[in-house]
Design goal:
The protein is α+β, with helices and mostly antiparallel strands. It is built from five helices and six strands. The strands form two sheets. It has a four-stranded antiparallel sheet with strand order 4-3-6-5, with helices on both faces. A two-stranded antiparallel ribbon has the order 1-2.
């Protein structure tokens, strides 16, 4: 844990303000869900809540299957980070922050089928060949995507696989 040197007091309603600098750095916006943890030493820890992150172990198995069946790099991300990846470019993606362009696709619920050079993770050289949002209970929670280094768009079969994956994961998050 890293000390920031910032101290805030709790108001009479039990609220505490998270400083703007921290919100900006951690990409915490109005409405971002935060999970609260307590530690043995009296720590109170706020962590961005990711419903897709709750499925991390399951997501790893799912992307392995997607990657093996298509021989492409497959990934599942929440709104900020790649939580599972499989295939030739796994190391360039796993646990990395997704690009702002990819965040925009998720936020806007875009069913992206490639061709416009959207980068998956800044600095990775990997472009998105297809990405569909994961929607659960009307809320977007992340995306399933295929990436490559060639800029080639996904074919019809790969798009159908992604659509199936997002539908299935969305239903898993509802349970």
């Amino acid at each position: 844990m890293k000390a920031t040197g910032i101290v805030r007091r709790i108001d009479d309603l039990g609220r505490v303000v998270i400083p703007k600098e921290i919100r900006r750095t951690m990409k915490i916006r109005e409405g971002t869900p935060l999970e609260i943890y307590t530690g043995v030493g009296g720590e109170v820890i706020f962590k961005k809540y990711s419903p897709v992150g709750e499925l991390a172990n399951f997501a790893e198995d799912y992307v392995e299957a997607l990657s093996k069946s298509t021989e492409q790099t497959a990934a599942i991300c929440d709104e900020d980070t790649v939580i599972a990846a499989a295939g030739p470019n796994k190391k360039e993606l796993l646990h990395k922050n997704i690009s702002e362009a990819m965040q925009g696709l998720i936020k806007d619920r875009v069913k992206y089928t490639g061709g416009e050079g959207v980068v998956a993770v800044d600095g990775s050289g990997l472009t998105v060949s297809a990405a569909y949002p994961i929607i659960s209970n009307g809320d977007v929670g992340g995306a399933v995507l295929f990436v490559n280094t060639t800029g080639k768009a996904a074919n019809e079969a790969e798009v159908k696989l992604i659509l199936s994956a997002t539908e299935f994961l969305g239903r898993q998050m509802e349970d």
